[in-house]
Amino acid sequence: MAIAKAERLMNLALCLLGTRRPLSKRELRGSIEAYLEAGSDDSFNRMFERDKDDLRELGLVIETVENLDGDVGYLARRDSNRLPPVTLDAEEAAALGLAAKVWQQARLAGAASGALQKLRAAGLPEEVDPYEPHSALEPRIPVHEAAFEPLMLACRDRRPVVFEYRKANAARPEARHVEPWALECWRGHWYLAGWDRDRGAERLFRLSRITGKVRSRAGKFTAEVPDVVTVRETVASWAGEIADRSAKLRLRSGAGYPLRAKATSVRELGDGWDELEIPYGHGMDAWLVEFGPDVVVLEPAELRADVVDRLRAVAKG
After folding, report:
1. What is the pLDDT of residues 109-163, one digit of tens each?
2. For 258-280, what is each residue's pLDDT tens digit?
3. Residue 242 burial (C-beta neighbours within 10 Å; 0-12, 13-18, 19+)
4. What is d(CA 68, CA 79) in angstroms, rounded to the nearest whole number?
5. Residue 165 forms beta bridges with which residues?
6. CA–CA separation, 279 vs 95, rounded Å?
7. d(Cα 203, Cα 229) in Å, to the nearest integer?
8. Which of 48, 94, 251, 312 is the most buried (most CB within 10 A)?
């Protein structure tokens, strides 16, 4: 359905841009196959009015002209819809070149190269070469997960998806039905933000934990897409990097250096143990479990209980 509508809009835009005189609704209906297939005049009129409004929202300037006989016609003058020349200064050209270079090792390499060629045709200075091997900047965004491309397309087209997802503390993956909003890379890992239909809430998914194929589903989104999706902030919060509380830990001497780096105070307890005070936020329990028997949570009680629950889940397999 989305492809059919896009094709219909493209045909209408081409008709309006290609004519030298205003075309009436009757003439447009006879020129576009999708309009010929409309069941009735009312159905055609509704379809045409929606398409005309959609083209205007996309930026096409459509004029409505009434002739001496009172007939109404439509056209899109080329001079009114012609984009201004693209002019780039050295800094802008360098930024665009680096943006294209970012994707050369990822799945969007072909699209980035094509975009750069179009920019060169539009005036990108020839001396700006983003693929110059001796450049001081070597930006890269690695994309190894097979789920990236189908999820990127699903985010763009607003299509629900389903995939198998294995949580960090789960032994087996489970099916997740998601309305995908945005993809973002944070510290070398790709994350998907979207609406989890089964849980009725916003969720983040790490692409490396998606197993199997991402499958598209028919239908529209059921939840409103927010204007701003703060993927990095949410991931940082769940990773314990946005701290709003303080925890007291007992840590084995000579172990847990990442914890020691975050500690606001360290006190030797003797017998091979130290006491640390460390700021933490959501997700700290998952991180502490990784240190196994080298760390013991002293307080707060809720953090200690969360760590114990995770350890029991791991022990059960």
Report:
1. 566 566 666 666 655 555 555 445 445 445 555 567 888 889 988 988 889 999 9
2. 888 888 999 999 899 999 998 87
3. middle
4. 24
5. 174, 210
6. 37
7. 11
8. 251
CA distance to 61, 165, 194, 211, 216, per residue, from 158 (Å):
26, 20, 11, 22, 10
Q: Which residues pair with 204 in a beta bridge?
A: 193
Q: Which two tokens stand for residue 279?
A: 């700021």
Q: How far apart are CA 34 and CA 4, in angstroms?
A: 8
Peptide bond connecting 226 to the previous residue in cis, omega within 30 degrees of 0: no
Rounded CA-CA distance 246/142 in Å is: 35
Query: CA separation (Å) from 221 to 1, 17, 90, 176, 272?
Result: 15, 33, 42, 15, 55
Question: How many residues does this entry show for the chain?
Answer: 317
DSSP label of 145: -
Tokens of 77: 């003058």
Interatomic CA distance for residues 234 and 176, integer angstroms:
19
Res. 246: pLDDT tops 70 = yes
226, 210 contact by CB (below 8 A): no
- Of 143 and 17, which is predicted with more confidence? 17
3-state secondary structure of 133: coil
Outline where DSSP puts E strands in the chain.
63-66, 72-75, 161-165, 174-186, 189-196, 201-206, 210-216, 245-252, 265-270, 273-280, 295-299
Distance CA 317, CA 298 (A): 26
- Please state, in angstroms and as integers, the Cα–Cα distance from residue 212 to each residue in 145, 191, 215, 278, following that order: 11, 16, 9, 38
Q: Please say whether the beta carbons of 33 and 39 come within 8 A.
A: no
